[in-house]
């Protein structure tokens, strides 16, 4: 049996109206309602994890793009071939492997 304990803050209630000295009361929640709340919270956690993972993947992809651009610029500086000419040369070599 699954039971959740929920703490509610009644700080807005005047001190004279409180029966206990603590500002927290314990509530028992229906097990079916607790399952529904747990499922909703799990969906929220999974959505946050997916968003975090997508951001990590995007950062890694951006880093590889910057490395590729830097390598292309260094090769252009050394050989005088533009990045587009380099790509054409690479594709020509790759296609020649499949044609022969």
UniProtKB/TrEMBL annotation:
<dbReference type="GO" id="GO:0009535">
    <property type="term" value="C:chloroplast thylakoid membrane"/>
</dbReference>
<keyword id="KW-0732">Signal</keyword>
<feature type="signal peptide">
    <location>
        <begin position="1"/>
        <end position="15"/>
    </location>
</feature>
<dbReference type="InterPro" id="IPR053091">
    <property type="entry name" value="PSII_Assembly/Photoprotect-Rel"/>
</dbReference>
<protein>
    <recommendedName>
        <fullName>High light inducible protein</fullName>
    </recommendedName>
</protein>
